[in-house]
Structure formats: C-alpha cells, structure tokens
Amino acid sequence: xxxxxxxxxxxxxxxxxxGGNSLFVSFVYETLSxxxxxxxxxxxLLYPSFxxxxxxxxxxxxxxxxxxxxxxxxSLNPFNWIKVASKINNEKPDLIIFDWWxxxxxxxxxxxxxxxxxxxxxxxxxxxxxxxxxEGHFIDRLLTRLGLHHSKYFxxxxxxxxxELKQNFKNKKIYRSELPIYDHLAGNSEDIxxxxxxxxxxxxxKVLLFFxxxxxxxxxxxxxxxxxxxxxxxxxxxxxxxxxxxxxxKFYLDLIEKxxxxxxxxxxxxxxxxxxxxxxxxxxxxxxxxxxxxxQSGILNLAYGFRKPVIVTKVxxxxxxxxxxxxxxxxEEPEPxxxxxxxxxxFEIENKIDFDKNISDFIKSNKxxxxxxxxxxxxxxxxxxxx
Length: 387
Prior knowledge:
Layout: E1 7-11, H1 20-32, E2 37-45, E3 70-74, H2 78-91, E4 95-100, H3 106-115, H4 118-121, E5 124-128, H5 138-147, E6 153-156, H6 159-168, E7 173-176, H7 192-198, E8 206-211, H8 220-230, E9 237-242, H9 249-258, E10 265-268, H10 274-282, E11 286-289, H11 298-305, E12 310-313, E13 328-331, H12 336-349, H13 355-363, H14 371-386
Helix pairs in contact: 2-3, 3-5, 8-12
C-alpha cells in the first residue's frame, strides 16, 4: 500500500500579490498541507501593469501571510506555459489544482493543461471562485470554456457557480466548497472609542462599512443613494468607504455632493493594508455589500471573521451565505429604496438579535472545512479511473 503523502501542485497567486485570490490560495495551501505535500506555482507575471486598474498588484502591508511558492508562471508567455507544463510532468504530482477566477487566464491555463502528459490530464482539478466574471461579455464566456476545457474535476465555491458548471460541463464531476472564514486579521480587541476618533466619528454614531475595491458591479452608488434616503431620520449614521477606486472616483464624489452627504461619508481611497483592516471592522455596526452581481465575496467572509453582521443584495450566490435576520439581512433587489428600507430594519432589530453568536454558529458549517475530504475523494477517483 502506498503510504507516502500525495503530492499536489497548485497553480495560483499568493504573496507577494495582494487581494482575495492570493489570500484564498494561501488558505488552501495551509489546509491541504496538513495532509498532503503541496507546492504552489505562483505567478512571476500576474497581470501586465497596463491591465491592472489599481496602484499596485503587490501587497505592501507590514503584516502579510507569507506562503512558500515558486514564482514561475507568466500569464502572457506561451513559451513559459510549455516550460511550466514540463516542470509539472517532471514533478509527477498526484493532482494539479488550478485556481480559476477570471477569463484573462484562459489561454495560460488551457495551454499549461494541454501540455501536461496524458496521465496527468486525468488529474486536473479547477477550483472555480467565479464561472463568468462579474462584468463578463460574450468573449468572456468563450474564454472561460476554453480555460476550463481540460478540467476533469471542479470544486465550486457557491451554489450559483455549481449550477453554471453543471449546465456547461455535464460530464464532469463537481464538488462543493466555500471560501474560508477570514479571521486571521481579527487580532485582539481594541478601544472602539479611540478607533472611532481616528476617523472623526463620535462614540454614539452608528457606522456602516463598504470595504474593498470599487467597481460598478459592487454598487457603491446604490448605497450612497440609499444613505441619502435615510440621513434625515438617522443623523447619527456614518458610512465608511474603504478601498481603492477601480472606477472613476469623480462619479462617486459627484453623488456625495448631489445628495449632500459630505458629513455622512468617510472616504478612504486606498488599498487597506492588513495591519489596519481590523480598525475598520471593529468600529463598524454592519458591513454592506450592495452588489449588482456576485458569486460569493471574500468581504463577507472577512466580516464574519470579525463576527460582524452584513447586509447583502440577493444577487448571484451572495445571499446563500446569509441567514436573513440572523447573520445579517438580505435585500431582494439592488435598488436604493429597498436597501434604505433594509438599513432601517437593521437598526430596528440590531439590539434584539445576537448577531455575534449567530455568526459564530453559522461559520461552524463552513464547507471549506471539508476541503481535505474532497481532495481525498478526487484522488480516489483518479486512482480508480486508472485501474
């Protein structure tokens, strides 16, 4: 009987890259490494700089989650893809895992998976954070099908992605998992009053938090309009917008001026370094995700890591991770009037519901905890198919 640790190669980003995908791959590595021999083939070129809308792709935080990896994948260079596939062939892994989140990587993933040997082609698994990107078009759908073409197994991170995969890859085995709960930044509790003072927020003011980079699909404009509808009845409410603008900042600033929200909004237009993340969540009463589209969101799982309730729109797979009036509230449509009504509802019930306990209970069922069991099943199927 083969008692050696099974070898797994993950192709995906991690440190020194920043953002949710890098964080997710780091958590996957830490979890799988408990039972398997794991290597990460990281990117030496993730996005070319002219395609990246933010200031930098790299994590400049003072505190970072450093995971061992080999930076060898160039997302643009076909000769590199052959080299990476050759290296994989020489490694002879038991399983190859691609982290998939955007059709930009379709050609890179397609050709790497094309150039691995015949035996390894039967041992390819894609973890699909998204199926079609949030702002996807016809070409994105074509690229997605191409990029995922050689996958023999899938792990979908939401029910919505699972359903999309079933429709498009009817003969492939699909497993379900979730994003992990990101509680690694919670740290020790701090003086909330002092933290609020840093943001010029008084002790008795309520805080709404919009966190993460800003693009149209994330619906910040919806939230600003909703805030304008409740500001007279909740004069003690402040909205913190913490994240880097990937859209035209002026559009949002014009909305703030239009609705006279200058005294109601605290704007932090920057990528928030890891060591400062907790400041925003600790002082917040609720985290709002007014998205127009979504599959799942690392921001939601980050909020749960701080045991903070959320308000989310019922789009894509987002609402499936929220128990309405238990771990947060769900807005039926991404509309300002409905969001305003839901924020009012939150303030009515926030002292009647133990959100902290409910979230703690909910995250015990987080499907990411079963990732190792899923990988074991996949490895068994790989072996059975060869016998």
